[in-house]
Specification:
The chain is an all-alpha fold. The protein is built from eleven helices and no strands. It has two domains: about 35 residues; about 220 residues, MetI-like (MetI-like fold, Orthogonal Bundle). The two termini are about 15 Å apart.
Length: about 260
């Protein structure tokens, strides 16, 4: 058996308990709904959720496309802004003293309080939702990048400095490669938050998106469709997480080999 086959076999073997646990949870859910004869508006069964998912698949997909566009655009913008802010605060101690406390304080303001202001100032278009995603993703990416850039081998930095290396050369040769694992860890955290940010923006005011679908289904007491929207949001969040994980494996093959 090849090394790749052994890895796939190990992943499949490790995933079996998770699949069994998921199946048991769904079975208990289905049996409980049937046994207690719970109404659809109160608690739909897994079978009812699957039927709602399939019945409204075209409408659900159209709303999902809007959320995908908002999430992807906001996520890319947050990465770009985090790179600029992180590098600036690492290379300039003055910039870090000025802006890092503001970065921390910004996280004390609830997103549910900021999103309505964005809609009030920018309208009901895509821009407020994209900015909501940026606000959600910017903090974990920036903090992870700063932590990774600052945790470097001082001996290597002093060696390069003694050889006349500039700050940019030390950043490129030592700091940036050393920061990549932490940077990707921040990306994975932000990836799970990004869809949530878009949905919150849509929930507060939009014409399309999974947040709109969720709100309309809730107002019409279609709890099965609410659960279908939750499933779609969960799958979309998992997609972004798996995507970042795959990019990390391609970008850091040496780290994957070390971990395995």
């Amino acid at each position: 058996m090849s090394v790749r086959s052994r890895r796939l076999h190990k992943k499949w073997r490790d995933g079996i308990p998770n699949l069994i646990f998921l199946f048991l949870c769904l079975a208990v859910w289905q049996i409980s709904v049937d046994f207690f004869k719970l109404p659809l508006w109160l608690m739909p069964s897994p079978a009812a959720v699957i039927k709602a998912f399939w019945r409204t698949r075209e409408l659900l997909w159209s709303h999902t496309l809007t959320t995908i566009w908002e999430t992807t655009t906001g996520f890319i913008l947050s990465i770009a802004l985090s790179l600029v802010a992180g590098l600036a605060m690492v290379l300039s101690p003055m910039a870090k003293r000025l802006f890092y406390p503001l970065l921390i304080v910004s996280q004390t303001v609830p997103l549910i309080a900021v999103a309505p202001l964005l809609i009030l100032w920018l309208g009901y278009g895509l821009l407020p939702k994209i900015l909501t995603v940026v606000i959600v993703c910017f903090f974990p990416i920036t903090v992870s990048l700063i932590e990774g850039l600052e945790v470097s081998d001082d001996d290597l930095l002093n060696l390069l400095k003694s050889m006349g290396a500039s700050r940019w050369q030390m950043l490129y040769m030592i700091r940036w490669p050393n920061a990549l694992p932490s940077f990707f860890a921040g990306l994975k955290i932000a990836a799970t938050y990004s869809v949530m940010g878009a949905v919150i923006g849509e929930w507060l005011g939009a014409s399309s998106g999974l947040g709109v679908y969720l709100t309309r289904s809730s107002h019409s007491f279609r709890t099965d469709q609410v659960f279908a929207a939750i499933v779609a949001i969960t799958l979309l969040s998992l997609f972004y997480f798996v995507l970042i994980t795959g990019i990390r494996r391609l970008a850091l093959p040496w780290l994957n080999t070390k971990q395995e």
